[in-house]
Write a structure and sequence with these properties.
Helix content is 21%, strand content 28%. By secondary structure, the chain is of the alpha+beta class. Strand 2 (10-15) and strand 3 form a beta hairpin.
Length: 131
């Protein structure tokens, strides 16, 4: 989920489990739609309500491989939406992230968790192409 503030900065979280930077998101619960999952995960992780969701893309394959610190391995199929936060008052869930901040697209840190790299590269290209 690419969450933007009023200045079009991107919300990044420093993950509690890996220490790497990434986007808010997570797994679907039974009976949820993709949009409901996106809204719930952002609310749970940082306490932000979102405006309208716009589908950016679906990512899968080798780029979406991830190994958790406990050794579990997954190949994610990631559906990415963009949305603007309705406010900027974050309430961080310490089990999910140790830090959260909005950063300009040109200042995205290099220590991203691997599955986020192609997502943020595509978003960066979209931003550049629209300028």
């Amino acid at each position: 989920m690419i969450v933007l503030d009023a200045n079009r900065n991107i919300l990044l979280l420093q993950r509690a489990d890996t220490g790497g930077w990434g986007l808010p998101g997570g797994f679907m619960e039974l009976g949820e739609t993709l949009e409901e999952t996106a809204r719930r995960e952002v609310m749970e992780e940082v306490g932000l309500e979102l405006g309208e969701l716009t589908l950016m893309g679906v990512f899968s394959g080798a780029d979406q491989y991830f190994q958790y610190p406990n050794g579990d391995e997954v190949f994610n199929v990631t559906t990415v939406y963009t949305a603007t936060a309705r406010h900027s008052r974050m309430r961080l869930d310490p089990d999910e992230a140790t830090t959260a901040r909005f950063v300009p697209v040109e200042e995205i840190p290099v220590d991203l968790i691997a599955p986020e790299v192609p997502i943020l590269e595509q978003y960066s290209r979209l931003v550049k192409d629209s300028q």
